[in-house]
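Entry type: protein chain
Record version: 2
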Amino acid sequence: MICGQITSGVIDRIPAGGTVNVSSKVILGFGSTQFVVHGDEPFGSADSRQQGGKLYLFYVKVNSGGGD
């Protein structure tokens, strides 16, 4: 990866059944990459999801269904 190796942020609230669009700073590079999302809820439950993808200069393809 050339630049934009790590982008992070906090989404304060997602309504039940809702969706949120997320955008990042510029990501440039070639090859495999990983996307990780971590969620916490106020009553102590937490979960993470890791999704593989590929970088093609400025185009990012996220693999459907997880995996590399």
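Comment: DSSP finds no helices and three strands in the chain.
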